[in-house]
TrEMBL record:
The keyword Transmembrane helix applies. Residues 369-391 are annotated as: Disordered. It comes from Enterobius vermicularis. This is SAC domain-containing protein. Residues 73-318 form the SAC domain. One of its GO terms (cellular component) is clathrin-coated endocytic vesicle.
């Protein structure tokens, strides 16, 4: 009946009887004597098709008259506004101040103008609203929470209550921080503040962007958008009709953050914006309830969000946004990865060479003191910071390598250094299958007192390189590293005894894992381990170097 009503309205402004509508449908559907072609106009002969458009043989042209005459223009406008409160550059402006103002607070407005009316949706971003900072000369300084919850909660409450007063409720906080590693503590503190507030006006969604989208699966962001669907419908959008009357108001807002509120935030806000635009166009009847946004509209919106993200990033970090190809095209490319590497290096340069001057300029523009406060001054390099940097980089590289290599159905049991990652199925040391392991020998190498680990295999496979199939055993030697991993954190070795114990723990972990999978491998402790032949050892060393380079590049 709904289809018939639409057909009646499409054909004429006057009511048409149900019987006539049924006959029209039967006329087109029953006999199979009407044809449609998407390649050419069947109502014209070949010669006339080059000269004229005619309705002489177009039986149902009357049904399409209102459609043919229905043209409209759609204008999309995006405006971002940066708060003057706690304004500045990223390493010198983090977190919240005592008045509840957060760093890098940006309000983005997306306006759809059609039929003389405007549909408006607001998005906001801002730093995690607690007291935290990043200092030092490291490439990625540690995230330091510098005040206890009792001191930071009043500022957190001022910030969140201020947003509710300004935008209405629900206030939906979307946190994109990693739920492991260096960002875990900051994310947990944020969650604890939300739970302490315990307000029905707030919503909180934690989405580990790097974990969910690992191995370039950025389509997983749709899972977050789907989870927000009901909240987005509740928040709605502002609708100003052509008489300049507000027919509908947006009540509430989505607040998105990562660490910098730049790269991951850009990707997620762009996806949320697409979902809201789809709701708006369906409300107008321009898109059917089961239809999706036109591809050209999606590309246009993605491009606008990418340009917007670049502008926000240049102001806060000095370079264009990272992951810009994901925001602009919805997928990762080699050019985008290389560009991100360049921008990351540029950000490091800006943070140590130009950001202090940029911060003073911003403060002068806003009429504030240009003297750096004690907590904003750049920390001096402490004794041993270089060693800590190296350990932190090793731990981060191990985590990133495991995250990139492991599929969703694999369980991570343990990992050691960069090249040794253990799961139930294999350890990613040139992807050696556990059923290929024949024995593990533990002991000091010839001419050395340090304990090393020997693994004897028959069929030795190399990830991304080649596979050696031979009846003679192949050997690989694992030497004691300079660091060990404890709770996913790299810690420098302090003594030879500690290094020997760590190597023994690796051997026992491999043996235990093989046994869990139903295999059997022998662990033998020898007084002295013999060296493998020089020719074979050189070959393995060359392949190991290639693997390290590939992993670091990825």
């Amino acid at each position: 009946m709904n289809q018939q009503n639409r057909l009646s309205k499409l054909a004429s402004d006057k009511p048409v009887s149900t019987r006539i509508i049924d006959e029209i449908l039967r006329l087109f559907n029953n006999d199979g004597d009407f044809y449609v072609s998407f390649g050419r106009n069947l109502t014209l002969n070949t010669q006339r098709s080059f000269l004229i458009i005619s309705a002489y043989f177009f039986f149902h042209s009357g049904l399409f008259e209102s459609v043919i005459n229905f043209f409209y223009s759609l204008t999309v406008t995006m405006i971002s506004r940066r708060s003057i409160e706690r304004a500045g550059v990223r390493y010198l402006r983090r977190g919240v101040d005592v008045d509840g103002n957060v760093a890098n607070f940006v309000e983005t407005e997306v306006i759809l103008t059609v039929f003389g009316s405007s549909k408006v949706n607001l998005h906001i971003r801002g730093s995690v609203p607690i007291f935290w900072k990043q200092r030092g000369f490291r490439y990625r300084p540690p995230l330091i929470i510098d005040k206890p919850m009792s001191s930071s909660f009043p500022a957190f409450e001022k910030h969140m209550d201020g947003l509710v007063n300004l935008y209405g409720s629900p206030l939906v906080a979307v946190c994109l921080l990693d739920q492991t590693g260096r960002e875990l503590g900051l994310g947990l503190s944020y969650l604890q503040h939300v739970l302490e507030k315990d307000s029905s006006k707030y919503g909180y969604y934690a989405f580990d962007f790097h974990s969910q989208c690992r191995a370039l699966r950025f389509q997983k962001v749709e899972n977050l958008v789907n989870a927000l669907h009901d909240q987005l419908k509740t928040i709605s959008f502002c609708w100003v009709d052509k008489t300049n009357h507000m027919a509908c108001e947006q009540s509430g807002v989505v607040r998105t953050n990562c660490v910098d509120c730049l790269d991951r935030t850009n990707v997620v806000q762009g996806s949320i914006s697409q979902a809201v635009c789809l709701l708006q166009l369906r409300k107008l009847g321009l898109i059917g309830p089961l239809s999706q946004l036109p591809e050209n509209f999606v590309r246009m919106l993605q491009s606008m969000w990418a340009d917007n993200g670049d502008a926000v990033s240049r102001q806060y970090a000095g370079t264009n946004a990272l992951k810009g190809d994901v925001t602009r095209c919805g997928q990762r490319g080699l050019v985008g990865i290389v560009r991100d590497g360049y921008n990351s290096a540029s950000r490091y340069y800006y943070s140590h060479m130009k950001d202090s001057h940029r911060q003073m300029t911003i403060d002068a523009l806003l009429g504030r003191s240009t003297e750096p406060s004690t907590d904003e001054s750049v920390d001096l390099v402490e004794e041993g910071e270089k060693e800590e940097d190296e350990s932190e980089n090793i731990g981060r590289l191990v985590n990133e390598t495991a995250r990139f290599l492991l599929s969703e159905n694999e369980i991570l049991l343990a990992f050691f250094e960069v090249l040794l990652t253990i799961t139930f199925h294999l350890h990613y040391l040139k992807s050696i299958q556990f059923d290929e392991l024949k024995s593990i020998e533990l002991g000091p190498l010839e001419g050395s007192k340090k304990v090393h680990l020997y693994k004897c295999l028959q069929n030795f496979g190399f990830v991304l390189l080649f596979r050696i199939i031979t009846s003679t055993p192949q050997y690989y030697t694992l030497r004691a590293p300079k660091t060990r991993l404890f709770n996913n954190t790299a810690i420098p070795m302090k003594s030879e005894e500690e290094a020997n114990e760590y190597v023994q723990a690796i051997a026992e972990q491999i043996k235990t894992t093989v046994n869990l999978t139903g295999g059997n491998v022998y662990l033998t402790t020898l007084r002295v381990l013999g060296n493998c032949p020089l020719k074979r050892r050189s070959l393995l060393f060359f392949c190991i170097c290639i693997i390290i380079i590939i992993l670091k590049t990825l």
